[in-house]
Amino acid sequence: MLTGNRILLIVTGGIAAYKTLELIRRLKERNAAVRCVLTRAGAQFVTPLSLAAISGDAVYDDLFSLTAEAEMGHIELSRDADLLVVAPATADILAKMAAGIADDLATTVLLATDKPVLVAPAMNVRMWEHPATRANIETLAARGVMRAGPGVGDMACGEFGEGRMAEPDEILGAIEAFFRGEGAAVTPSGGAPGQKRPLAGRRALVTSGPTHEAIDPVRYIANRSSGKQGHAIARALAGMGADTTLVSGPTGLADPPGMTVVHVESACDMLDACTQALPVDIAVCAAAVSDWRAADEAAQKIKKNGGGPPRLELTENPDILLTLARADNMRPGLLVGFAAETEKVIAHAKAKRKKKGVDWILANDVSPGTGTFGGDRNVIHLIDDSGVEDWPAMSKDGVARRLAERIADHIAAKS
Ligand SMILES: Cc1cc2nc3c(=O)[nH]c(=O)nc-3n(C[C@H](O)[C@H](O)[C@H](O)COP(=O)(O)O)c2cc1C
Q: Whose CA is nearest to atom 10 of ligand 1?
């Protein structure tokens, strides 16, 4: 029951708006007080009359309505609720929320509120996978905006993929979980509150991003890893309930909420942070750790002295994956590594798995033409004892979710 809980439901201009009527009905059945705000585009899909009839309250759609402002000002509207739910949440409203735009009643209310916000995105798969939407979702997640869905399936536009609004029952589940106080108000973007938490009680360690190996105080050796894949995996594992530590090299990404994030620079620092996080049930090493570092880091900036370029001596970095694999009684229950290759991807990845004693290797091609480093999509080949599993091209979030589900299935099968 949601007796006494006040929900401000913001309905935006997506085809899935018709499902929102069902959501309101379910919320009302559970005695929640539901009040609706409708965008101009939203009114193309559902009428204010239907929303008013089902919610049993006035529908607000005009920022500059004198009567509405006198009865219930926009600031009051945004504060007179326990939870704001945006369903469906269009690509447009997510972009405006991320940018802090307030150019109509819905966006103004969202900017003015001091209450928790849950979004149920709904859009075409290309819109969902567009880097702009990915970045907006990251920004909102980092601010603690909760998310339910979207799911994968057939779309009204005739395409298939990720972007379908979560079903009313799933959104309801997320709302009920929020009011039960389950999960934090800040939910990792890899999963909605109320989703299955098959990794609850498990500890996970994820490494992500590049390492920086100092040459002198201003220069370093680095690589092109963005950290997007590793961060997405950490979010997906945390979203499934794992107590997650993310050890991140220098990236431009916001810290995902709902987990412990340890920031490191070099491979040696990353190894220290990883060993301190042990013991764990799951370790996913997605960081692109530099194989080498400068043998002698100069204490002062190396200057041009007219005698030609300085000689840069390299020394090998510690092997984090190998160290974890050989950690005796501290070895992670399931150790997953990445193999970033530019040629003979499968053969090199298989050799790496054997040499390092890793359970699973996720091989990906990082040749410049693939756009894997820094991009939002990835093509994975999962190699384990039983052979090679080729995954289709997916968003990095999609890869993360599929991996987290596979990990959860593996752990469930073993226990
Ligand atoms: C038939 C039709 C269906 C649409 N469905 C969606 C959708 O599912 N998701 C989305 O993000 N935008 C969709 N759009 C585009 C939005 O309506 C448009 O971006 C609008 O500006 C959103 O405004 P709002 O966010 O203020 O409601 C659709 C447009 C049309 C014409």
A: 90
